[in-house]
Amino acid sequence: MKQTELSQAFKDFFQNDENPRFFFAPGRINLIGEHTDYNGGHVFPAAISFGTYAAARKRPDQKLRFYSMNFQEKGIIECELADLSFSSEHDWANFPKGMIHHFVKNGFSISHGMDILFYGNIPNGAGLSSSASIEMVTGVVLESLFDLEIDRLRMIQLGQDVENQYIGVNSGIMDQFAIGKGKKDFAILLDCQTLAYSYAPVELVDHEIVIINSNKQRTLAGSKYNERRAQCEEALSDLRNELHVNSLGELTGENFEQFKHLIKNDTNRKRAKHAVYENERTLLALKELEQGNIEAFGQLMNASHISLRDDYAVTGAELDHIAAMAWRHPGVVGARMTGAGFGGCAIAIVHRAQIESFKENLIDSYTKEFGFSPSFYEAKISDGAKELTEEF
Ligand code: GLA
Q1: What confidence tens digit (pLDDT) does each residue in 159-170 have?
Q2: Which of 67, 202, 203, 371, CA to CA, is 20 to 30 A from 350?
Q3: CATH class of 202-378
Q4: CB under 6 Å to ligand 1: residues?
């Protein structure tokens, strides 16, 4: 989307001739470290060049007007600053509304209403964090339009509060963190227990990251996600009967083997096993990437998928097909689902010379199996949420 188009759309839809300011927040992929964030483990995500644009202006009154070019049939959604409570009628606009609500609740002064137009080029519900992207783009709109002094980490945490308290999904901090702190060409190794983080260059030599959307609708993703989280909490609470640990992320594989009998329920034991070993894989993966061992990195991605399939049970037939087909294809060093799962996207690290044949073969076998086709995105690893001050 070009600036001139976004500007024109803002003026047309809001009937407002004044120039808006422009903002962008990326989506994210997660290279490895899945369902570890709320278990106090490590994650290894990166912000991508697809995301959400916003064009915004303050209004003289107290009215908030939201418009999304992705949900044009919903029209302009309106509310007053004085009533920011969740409303199912407001549909997608609950994400920006929730962000404004949490800013106000935390003492940030939002003195005026606004007109905000959104345009997203990440598919909704595909597991690339379209919701965290819209939250974080709203965060930078508020920061800039109202000259707020807000630490980036605080903004990230407010985004997570919106998901947890306003929307009702008990998600961890990974998505908002990756989107808030993304850096071009770098992935972020984040310790979700302490929030210590570092950037690692993603240098894949002759390889590219291919994002594959299964195009499988993510039904019930929120409730199954919350269920997984509760199962991990139960497992932790069983372990704590004899062990002094604050989170599953504090355990090594060895510790786990020694104490896993304390977890009473078989399913919970499998969930915890994934969380513990996935955290170990994530730390190993960073080392392999730093040493340029792309093959070894790819093997860890594959092992991550298998664990998410067999122990965490969040992959599903479509993502399993994509991963298995990728593992067999020449030039693919690793492939796994990315994000929460239950449909959504997978990522594969593919040698440049093989990308086209990989896509063709996958479209062919996938369509035969499921009757619909996957989509592909070639995203670059990008910067985090910010105001766009140069022409785009
Ligand atoms: C979703 C959540 C994240 C994280 C992933 C799984 O994207 O928002 O916090 O838990 O799922 O790794």
Answers
A1: 999 999 999 989
A2: 371
A3: alpha beta
A4: 30, 34-35, 37-38, 171-172, 174-175, 339-340
